[in-house]
Specification:
By secondary structure, the chain is mainly α. It has 9 helices and 2 strands, in the order αααααβαααβα.
């Protein structure tokens, strides 16, 4: 069977099917025509206008860092178009986020939370509180671990302490008694026993 005979038979079969389904045949003719007319109407309703050259702000990929990536997503969400080239289009520039509000907020928060001396003092206080909590727990559960080890009161006091002058001037104790009190050694297990003694609480 020759090629042209096959094509003629296919066209004849197609024509027979279209003759039997007249509505489908009509839709197949009218639907592309309607689409074409709609495109012509849109072209006439919206005349052409000149668009200047667009320079879009760069958007960093996640590999550039979390902050540039978030900056590219949130600060360029509406995808603005600029007349002149943006800062991020220069050669070797990965991101232009360094002068953005988000970068300044991040830098200020980092200086405030990580580099401020007050925050470092708070961290040191927190560490000392943890050590004190562990010490009190040891005194409560296993006092035998620290039994027999006295703590000198002078070692607990800070430099420039005012307890000595308070005991001499306000309480009226002698220098010898104050010296004995400051250099006395207190055993923590005895303090724990005093706190737990019911007879002393009455």
């Amino acid at each position: 069977m020759s090629f042209f005979r096959q094509v003629r038979l296919l066209l004849w079969k197609n024509w027979i099917l279209r003759k039997r389904q007249k509505l489908r045949f009509l839709v197949e003719l009218v639907w592309p025509l309607l689409l074409f007319l709609a495109l012509v109407w849109l072209r006439k309703a919206n005349p052409l206008y000149r668009q200047h050259e667009c320079h879009f702000p760069n958007k960093a990929m996640p590999s550039a860092g979390t902050l540039p990536w978030l900056h590219g997503i949130f600060c360029n969400m509406n995808n603005p178009c600029f007349h002149s080239p943006t800062h991020g289009e220069g050669p070797g520039v990965v991101s232009n986020y360094k002068n953005s509000i988000l970068a300044r907020v991040y830098k200020d928060a980092q200086e405030l939370l990580l580099e401020a001396p007050e925050i470092q003092d708070l961290g040191r206080i927190w560490e000392e509180l943890i050590i004190l909590t562990q010490f009190m727990e040891t005194m409560r559960t296993n006092p035998e671990k620290i039994a027999g080890r006295g703590i000198r009161i002078l070692d607990i006091l800070k430099d420039g302490e005012t307890l000595t002058s308070f005991l001499i001037e306000n309480v009226g104790l002698s220098d010898f008694v104050v010296y004995q009190l400051i250099n006395a050694q207190v055993r923590p297990e005895q303090v724990g026993r005093v706190q737990q003694s019911p007879s002393l609480c009455l």
